[in-house]
Please model this.
Amino acid sequence: MSRKPVPAQSGERSRTELLFDRPQLLAQLFGQYDRNLVALENRLGVYITARGNRVGLEGTAEQVALARDVLHDLYARIQRGEEVDGGLVDASIAMASEPVLDGIISTERAPAPSVMIRTRKKTIVPRTPAQAHYMRELTTHDMIFALGPAGTGKTYIAVAQAVAQLITGSVQRLILSRPAVEAGERLGFLPGDMKEKVDPYLRPLYDALYDCLPAEQVERRIASGEIEIAPIAFMRGRTLADAFVILDEAQNTTPAQMKMFLTRFGQNSRMVICGDPNQTDLPGGVAASGLADATIRLEGVEGISLCRFTAADVVRHPIVGRIVEAYEGADG
Model:
């Protein structure tokens, strides 16, 4: 493989060659029509050539170092059986740019992060430094606030961790909740019974579950009560012991609802509250949000962790991150 060189940034030119010991894995490393290598060239400004099991890198010293670390990271993931796609390539590039994060990517070619979540259907690994920190906090804190824009994996990772703990028996129940309807849960005008009224608002939680467990297990565990998906109004008056509890779209709770939810915390439980403090559908705006109020009150409280994500942590299509940045810039 050889392509027209990509213009490098100003700086002294550097060249290096990588040797991979399992040539059969290189097709997946390079991607269909070498799209992963093209992405590296476009993102890092490095020039890549590949012949046999040797890959040549040319660019500034910084560009070559980043490209080398990304290729070694992706290759290690493939060796462990992970699937490399465009999102993972982008995430690996972002993580390679964070040399202070030990154990993710480093100039010593450290192995990919040991932090991961195993479910029945897949193994979830962090795609950004913030996700790696979040996954660690999920194992060490009883209450975690995950704050940031959509697409950063806040709820998905929490659901995966909850499923993993349910499978191992660390908790007996998984409870997923969110405000059923923005600005007050006014459900009466919707057709159908209560389940039919609220299910459309809880669909993202179902989607995350089905991605981590086989469909028949999800249905069986819901029928048995091991998994419960309900609007936040259903939490009133309960004590949630031996449970992994997740509140999604928490920015659409009022301060009273948030206090009610947080005080449901019981023995041997873990609670994750996910939302974007800068976005709310409540009539009073951000000032009326229970999430914004709770983060001010609870930051620094022992046993509670606040994990913050930014547009740089968006792991959907790269254009989603650029859209988030554009809107945040406009709001700022």
